[in-house]
Amino acid sequence: MRLLVAQIGARRHYAVPRVLHGAGMLDRLVTDACGDLFPWSLADLVPAFLRRDALSRLAARSSGLPRGKVTGLFIFTVSALLGPSRRKPGGNNISWWLHRNRRFNELVIGKGFGSADGVYVFNGAGLEVLKEAKRLGLFRVLDQTSAPMRHDAELLISESERWPDWSTEADSIYNWLPMAEREEEEWQLADRIICGSEYVAEGIRVLGGPAKKSRVVPYPCDHGMQPPATEHVTPAEKQEKRCGQRSNNLMQSRTRSTAGLHILFAGTLNLRKGLPYLHEAIRLFGAGRAKWRIVGPPAISRQALAMLGRVAEVRGAVPRSEMVEHYAWADILVLPTISEGSANVCYEALARAVPVITTPNAGSIVRDMIDGFIVPVRSPASIAEKLALLEGNPSLLQEMSLRALERSREFTVNTYAFYLENAIKY
Asked: DSSP code of 172?
């Protein structure tokens, strides 16, 4: 079987087309843009101070595929770069995405499916391709990258009502319905639905979707962010590097009560990621009791951002290449998410030997009390309690750090390739 992958953006750093290519199952990738293709391959020639952020991000994308295997949609990409922003505060972004997704599908179909005998698309962005593939009698795979949109919309509307001073979104459940209906029609057209976690698969089942089509395939840990085993730095070593205390080959430990935990949040700053509960957890634990760092693009009100800035260091959006430094700084990642597919930051943190405190709705591979803690949704008190436990027990934190690194090595690209190939075929 040879699949045409239709993908907007660099989802999971092109893991799907790369894996399919390695298995001899990729016909080609059709995408908006990537740094391998002209003219984006010339972006490095433009001085950094002249580049727009969007151009820099495009230039940094590399599919890792032979150029003959990648088709870019230049006009589609330029129209997004030059057109109106999709992130107007208080605006309805859903209609923008609906239009873009439909247009992307039209362009993919216009390019033809070549010698492919199947297609691989992503939820909300593959309906028309799936319809055409069905008409042609081709095999159809849908990657469900998140919990079902109808489920998410209901959760997020509830959060907006609970935290009116935090949200910048004016969308209601009714604005989301067209995208949710589009996604649910994709379920019916697909032969296989690939889910990153049991949480996603369960969401499809609860909504009455075709659960028998679902296959759970956890994502690979980003081992580009993982230090070699011989270079692993334990939490105790991190502390001593901060203090500059070494005596011959023996490191003199520094207690947590003196040094304080380094606690990281990474991801978009929005209601979905549980930012109000992070803020409350900081208050309960004590802002001055630890060093708190929040990294990611803001999508909350200015008032809420200012509130976070008073209790934590807020870095904003950073290039992915810089995240290695933030994970190296961190002792713990906290992600109090309301809903995900399978949160990428959890995989990244484990690969950097950083234990994770998150919720069941993260769809993560974190194991409770082994390489982190799974706490209830909307429970800042539980987060503060686990942080206090780790603060008072450095040996537990160090043990969890080691277990985190070991856990990440169970989820390699090769493992992902094996399970994805089998999920598609069987």
From this structure: -
Rounded to whole angstroms, how far apart are CA atoms 30 and 198?
A: 28
Residues 3-220+413-425, CATH architecture:
3-Layer(aba) Sandwich (3.40)
Mean pLDDT by 10 residues, the chain (426 residues): 96 93 97 76 59 60 89 84 54 79 97 97 98 99 97 91 83 76 98 98 98 97 56 50 35 44 97 98 98 96 97 93 94 98 96 98 98 99 99 98 98 96 96
Report the C-alpha gap between 96 and 178 in whole angstroms: 12
CATH architecture of 224-408: 3-Layer(aba) Sandwich (3.40)
Beta bridge partners, 298, equal: 269
| Distance between CA atoms of residues 17 and 141, nearest Å | 13
Sheet holding 291-295, edge to edge: 313-316, 291-295, 262-266, 332-335, 356-358, 372-374
Q: In this structure, what are the phi and psi dihedrals at residue 143, rounded to the nearest 5 degrees?
A: -95, 110
Query: What's the whole-model pTM score?
Result: 0.86
Angstrom CA distances, 127 to 24, 174, 179, 308, stand at: 25, 20, 11, 39
User: Which amino acid, one-letter code, is at 384?
Assistant: A
Q: What is the DSSP pairing of strand 313-316 with strand 291-295?
A: parallel
Task: Please name the helix (run of DSSP H) or strand (run of DSSP E) that holds residue 277, with its range, or none.
Answer: helix 275-285
